[in-house]
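Reviewer comment 2.1 asked that we show a complete input and output for one of the modelled complexes. We chose the heme C case, as it is the one discussed in the main text.
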Amino acid sequence: MAKPTYILMAAISAAIFMGGCGDGPSASQSLASKANTPAPVKTPVKAAVTSAKFSPYVDAQGNISRPTDFLTGRQWTHLGAWAVVNENGEGNGMHNVYTTHDVVKAYRDTGKFPDGAVLVKEVRGASATTLTTGRAHWPAENAVWFVSVKDATNRFPDNPLWGHGWGWALFEAGAPAKQVAKDYKADCLSCHVPVKDTDWIYAHAYPVLNED
Ligand code: HEC
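Response of the prediction step:
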């Protein structure tokens, strides 16, 4: 059975045990003291409920949805940027990568992406012109979004979009809510082999993770 389901069931039964029968903590406590066992502690219920919801972007089957507020949401931050040029040196694509502030903090503290970390790579075309700074490129129309969700506990072993410590997803501008990757081993993994030693992420390119 998938782990989130297990945790969810534990949370539900804990919630029922804590108050669902209508007799409340005092009744439980007097029952407990009669039986000479410690009274149940209240705080684990909240912890269990929180961990049952692994990620707001992942459902119980491991289907990944695209975060829609990563450009403007307060919890989001810019992780880094790539400019990809063609053989003439002109911009082919502008890749901007986003994550949440808590992920940056955890990575800086531990050197690892924390469980549940979400990374969004937004790929756009490039507009270009000659400015006072030189040949300048800036992001044009949206093309695709790559979304990776860190999974430290192998939650979805039977789902072909999960493995090697991550959930892997792809969304296209034509239908941005529709996840289109089929199998991360075919659709994603080989291109990330050069960075397998940094948990399959091009982490060296993001100064905010590594520099003071
Ligand atoms: C053609 C090769 C290629 C494929 C296929 C590919 N990636 Fe990547 N990915 C890269 C490269 C190279 C970078 C960093 C440089 C860049 O964006 O130009 C990157 C960066 C990323 C990033 C930003 C974080 C990081 O690793 O630096 C995410 C998120 C990401 N990819 C997710 C995915 C997912 C999910 C898939 C499959 C649906 C996928 N990628 C498929 C080559 C690829």
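The domain at 76-210 is CATH 3.50.70.20 (Chalcone isomerase). We note this here for comparison with the apo prediction described in Section 3.2.
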